[in-house]
Write a structure and sequence with these properties.
By secondary structure, the chain is of the alpha/beta class. Helix content is 29%, strand content 24%. The strands form five sheets. Strands 1, 2, 3, 4, 5, 6 and 17 form a seven-stranded mixed beta sheet that branches. A hairpin with a 4-residue loop joins strand 5 and strand 6. Bound molecules: flavin-adenine dinucleotide.
């Protein structure tokens, strides 16, 4: 008689989720000598490639191209952008599909038998069952199941009129009028991209702040810049209803019809159905097992968590780092070692970009401001706006953080991250060469202001320069 028992697998490390975090965890665990299984319900490509970083940046870049044409007259070049929405969306998908194909190639390159397609759930601390009944026993498990968009109830009822990041890039056309619900970093990037492409965009945000920007001065500059191309309602409760073949959004102060709505009200870890109750873990407010951020270990179990699934720092490089830490510790369990974590670092790809590096300002922080509204290179580029707010500590002016908005800030943020991680002071940075005319030299007034404030020496070439100059 045929044995109909579903197959049972054993391994050293089972990883649930083949996204950026899971792939990193699997790679590291295997290179550490562990027998690995990488379980994913779809193997459709990472969130980054399919519905995240890459398609959003493709759309953002299309919007910037349209804006560049609109700004061309400033250089004596007359042009009007004619935006062909169908071709814009076609290119987004075409290029996205290339990125997706590259991530899928990564799956193909896995050693035979490592990839297992199925939806996993825990049946014990390190025992899993897949949706087709196959079972897995592992010495250790890494949870890397990612996150999903939160869609509040009234929007769910609107069906096809509502988009999230999971559907919007598959639209064939640009809408004429788009409501964006939620002004977090992801919502703002897409809202501004659509606005730059000629879509009438209105953003509704329940809170008073946008983009998670904690520096009030940079925050206000971001709001000012965004309002140049779209309407931004802050501190309002928007409620939707279907109407005139579209969606009518009503709020305290008005109501307006839109062709579609983009819901961008945050993301939550994908842990539902994972059977975490079978593991006996204590869960935090997000429903995430309580874990150590330096080891990624959940309690003292042979279970580790990484990437968006842990609801902390939901950005790609962190998913990759956390996967690496989790995979290594899972392979070496019970020898679990803490790893140093990078400084907080986010970039929002608005135009111009916003970036935050290091720690927020404290009450006793020294703040040096480098304005870019009169900065040489920024003026050359006809993009003179924004500022960098540099935070430093007393007594020597060591940099601790920075928040910025302005041209090229996605690059400048990397320099500042490096400087903060290396323990540089305002003085030591001013000792480095700055080429002229560059956006980088725009940092000098802020650095000099810090030196002035903490009475730190200026390098000889900066002596005699008034602070702020
Ligand atoms: C619109 C958007 C733009 C973004 N832009 C940026 C950016 O510019 N820069 C940046 O750094 N970050 C950006 N991010 C964030 C970044 O994409 C994520 O932080 C990162 O992709 C998370 O990777 P992950 O491995 O945790 O999850 P994922 O890549 O989502 O992988 C999780 C995998 O687990 C699978 N899975 C889930 N549950 C199960 C189960 N029970 N069994 C089996 N498999 C399961 C899923 O199908 C999926 O394949 C953006 C995100 C979005 C949404």
């Amino acid at each position: 008689m045929a044995d109909n028992t579903p197959p049972h697998f054993t391994c050293d490390v089972a990883i649930i989720g083949a996204g950026t975090a899971g792939l990193a965890a699997e790679r590291v665990a295997r290179s550490d000598g562990a027998r690995t299984l990488l379980i994913d319900d779809r193997f459709a490509g990472t969130t980054c490639a399919t519905v995240g970083c890459m398609p959003s940046k493709l759309l953002v870049t299309a919007g910037m191209a349209a804006q560049a044409v609109r700004r061309a007259h400033l250089f004596g070049i007359d042009a009007t952008p004619h935006v062909d929405g169908t071709r814009v969306m076609q290119r987004v998908r075409q290029e996205r599909d290339r990125f997706v194909a590259a991530t899928k190639k990564g799956f193909d390159d896995l050693p035979e038998g490592v990839a297992i397609k199925g939806c996993a759930r825990f049946t014990g601390p390190t025992a899993l069952t897949l949706d087709d009944g196959r079972t897995v026993s592992a010495r250790a498990v890494v949870i890397a199941t990612g996150s999903k968009p939160i869609v509040p109830e009234p929007y769910r009822a609107l069906g096809d009129l509502v988009d999230t990041n999971e559907t919007i890039f598959d639209r064939d056309e640009l809408p004429r009028a788009l409501a964006v619900i939620g002004a977090g970093a992801l919502g703002l990037e897409l809202a501004q991209a659509f606005a730059s492409l000629g879509v009438e965009v209105v953003v509704f945000e329940r809170g008073e702040r946008v983009g998670g920007v904690h520096d009030p001065v940079v925050h206000d500059e971001l709001v000012r810049i965004l309002r140049q191309c779209m309407t931004l309602h802050l501190g309002v409760d928007a409620s939707p209803s279907p109407g005139n073949g579209g969606v009518v959004i009503s709020w305290d102060g008005g109501s307006k019809r839109f062709d579609r709505v983009l819901v961008s009200t945050g993301r939550e870890p994908k842990l539902e159905g994972l059977g975490l109750n079978q593991t006996g873990f204590a869960l935090n407010d997000h429903g995430v097992p309580v874990y150590d951020k330096r080891t990624m270990q959940c309690g003292d179990a042979a279970v580790f968590i990484a990437g968006d699934a842990d609801a902390d720092r939901p950005v790609l490089h962190e998913a990759s780092d956390e996967g690496t830490i989790a995979g290594r510790n899972a392979a070496r369990f019970p020898k679990v070692e803490p790893a140093a974590r990078d400084l907080p670092f986010t970039i929002t790809f608005t135009d111009p970009p916003v970036a935050m590096v290091g720690e927020p300002a404290r009450e006793d922080s020294v703040i040096g401001c480098a304005p870019y509204d009169d900065q040489g290179r920024a003026k050359v580029m006809a993009q003179a706006e924004g500022m960098v707010r540099l935070y430093a500590s007393k007594p020597d002016g060591q940099l601790t953080g920075a928040v910025m908005i302005g041209p090229g800030m996605d690059h400048i943020a990397h320099l500042l991250a490096l400087a903060i991680m290396r323990g540089e002071t305002a003085t030591s940075l001013l000792e480095l060469p700055f080429y002229h005319p560059t956006l980088e030299e725009g940092l000098k007034p802020g650095l000099r202001a810090i030196c002035h404030e903490v009475h730190a020496p200026l390098p000889p070439r900066d002596q005699g320069t008034p602070p702020g100059a």
